[in-house]
Structures
1.
Amino acid sequence: MGESWRTALEPEFSKPYFQKLKEFLIAEHKAHTIYPKTSDVYSWSRLTPLDSVKAVVLGQDPYHNVGQAHGLSFSVLPPTKLPGSLKNIYKQLSADIPSFEAPSTGDLTPLAQAGVLWLNTCLTVRAHTANSHSKKGWETFTDAVIRAILSRESEADGKGGVVFFAWGLPAQKTFERIGIDEKRHLVLKSAHPSPLSAHRGFLGNGHFKKANEWLSERYGEGKEIDWAVLTRDSRG
């Protein structure tokens, strides 16, 4: 785990729920294939240090097929084919950000390094079994991740603020449960980008443009998220 997150989340590691979660994961690893690989479970924390977070994109649980999950929500490493949800995210980025051209790769690492926290509510999953690690303790832990952002020193004077992308009811319910102050932060709600629901309000939501407008207004011009870093990175 990245040092900034390890320091902020250290109280969680000794709590009973986290000990139970560890025991569950040890048993799961003995009996099943688990994604992502152990070294990638906390990759989000290394790529996006706590103080660098400008935006949070909350997913549910990791992709559960071979060669997909690597610790960032919605992201897959090449040569994995783009999942449907990510294709729709790229479509909306192309509509919102003139300099963005959809890359052929699904690796969102450059955006994680640019301050976008791609977080799942569950950080592991059993192979080929969606939601198999839900309600085992991860949700409590990732709630603490979000609360750590809300309690950063930079938020204490009321001048901070983060963009929270709440795509789909599970993400919206998580943010509501935590109680994000929408006077201080921007919460952008819409349908999920999944092909099953994207046409019901995700496509056309303008979220990436709205996020950058808010960040520019809040922090000053030039403080927006450089979404087009994906385009440049894919070109080498």
2.
Amino acid sequence: MSRQQRVALRRSRLTDAALELFGTQGYSSTSIERLCATANVSTRSFYEDIGSREALLIALVDRLNTAALQRLDEALARTGDQPLVVRVVESFRAFLSVTCRDRKAARVFFVEVVGVSPAVEEWRRGQRRSISGLLTREAQRAAERGEAESRSFHLFTLALIGAVTSLAQEMVHATVPGEAISVDEICDEIGYFIHSGFSVRPAVQPT
């Protein structure tokens, strides 16, 4: 293998180890030494290839986010002739099928990534802005078709992303039998939320 291939392989093994360890024992409880032992990578290679535990966390959530966005785009393409509510709900369902594919992924993506450092928070803001922009464009197209009220959707889409994040966090934290939350239940709530925020509001009749 070339040097680039060896580096890519080590990065992949370290990212896999991060998913396992951050997703089970948590980011703050996972040492670099433990990550390297799990990935079978030397600490010297870790610092040369990754640089820091923070950078490894960003690499991991970025990998999950990239795969989730691909699924989201596929859902939008598949539901091109459907109403806006259906398109957005199915897009989130596709996104969550990756980020919440198991408890480890959901814990890393929605819980462990919160409040780690300014760099990780900047990644989270960028990720939210990206999805917000996509949803806003979809809503604006729907408004042009008369399917949604014509207004600024920026704050609403950010609120929608915040609601999904909060529900996903509750799904991770739910440990009592009977209180478990499923992706389908999250998507049902998204549907109610979107119907209220995107639908055309009836004109107020003068009294």
3.
Amino acid sequence: MSAPARPKKHFGQHFLHEKRYVERIVAAVAPRAEDAVVEIGPGEGALTLPLLAAAGRLTAIELDDELIPALQARAAAVGRLEVIRADVLTVDFAALARRLGVPRLRLAGNLPYYISSPILFHCLAHADVIADMHFMLQKEVVERMAAAPGSKIYGRLSVMLQLACTVVPLFDVPPGAFRPPPKVDSAVVRLTPLPAEARHRADPARVHAIVKAAFAQRRKTLANTLKGVLDANAIERAGIDPKARAETLDPEDFVRLAQVD
């Protein structure tokens, strides 16, 4: 049996090893034989092998090519594993779904915490071909993702994710469940993209620009933060008080701001 891989700091690697949390994640995903499951960052395969056993086939996206041979060897007797050696931010999920012959993918993974937000936004850009996502993330990030308006942690990530997905935090995972233990608590979250007909029709780039500007200076009013993007009259035409702060607005309010003439 090969020795455990040495986690690499520059890849943000923390390998999940505690069996009970692996089992809880696999139970939450509940993969079926007809599913096209895609794991982001399989690492040593703690999640890969049980997901593969349940689904029979699995696609894994791994950047660290030193981990791939051992992963493929362990998977050989379990099911059909395809490993894509790539940075997930370069992966076209729509093209992958077409190649696999499925309408939608099911994503899972223990995401590198230092680039979790870019990965989430990359996945959102492919929401049409994603059935659901089960991700392990820093607990603080999961709390921000699910935060409600009026909360101190409600912000850009909350709005952009909630406009595209149903966000359901599932359970926490302590540092000791990983090798090496991270310095923060972790949590597992389920993201389910909204059906196309339930999503807003505003220009996504416009919505993103307004949300980003609105939360750039949280303590200032919309009239100040959106200066140069929307004037006070335009904000009022969207049915929103220009003196309001971004953290008090519902996600749909930002869509109305993006749609105002």
